[in-house]
Design a protein that fits this description.
Layout: H1 2-19, H2 22-48, H3 68-82, H4 96-107, H5 118-138
């Protein structure tokens, strides 16, 4: 899982060096990491919440029994963020909110770290759109 994230995460720092401002690379990395941690937190909370029908029994259907719920959810969040295609738990067997997080990660189009380079250009496109819309709302566009 670490190997899935290390190259896309390092590309944010490469971008910062390339444009001559390491702060921009850190800002992009921070935005991606916040999205990853938020999705992981919500997924873990929903998987460990008790179901009124099943009580306090863990919902293990579709999970990798060798690794347990935590590693299965962690792997599902990371692989949907990176869009590598690997699976160790069935996404349709996750709890409804965890399944929603997996679908949102897939629908975001690889902006949360993404594949090698794919998440970086997706995030840069979101940054350009954000600056444009913020300029429209404020009424002043940046000159650079």
């Amino acid at each position: 899982m670490f190997a899935l994230l290390i190259i896309p995460a390092s590309l944010t720092f490469t971008y910062g060096k390339m444009v001559g401002s390491a702060r921009q690379g850190w800002a992009i990395f921070t935005a991606m990491m916040i999205l990853l941690i938020a999705g992981l937190s919500i997924s873990l909370y929903s998987e460990y919440s008790s179901n009124p029908i099943f009580g306090h029994l863990p919902l293990m259907e579709g999970k990798e029994t060798r690794f347990g719920i935590t590693n299965s959810v962690l792997f599902s969040v990371i692989t949907t963020d990176v869009s590598c295609g690997a699976v160790n738990c069935m996404h349709d067997s996750l709890s409804p909110i965890s399944g929603m997080i997996a679908m949102i990660n897939l629908m975001l189009g690889e902006i949360i770290f993404g594949g090698v380079g794919a998440g970086m250009y997706g995030m840069v496109i979101f940054i350009i759109i954000t600056v444009f819309i913020a300029g429209l709302m404020v009424g002043v566009h940046p000159n650079t």
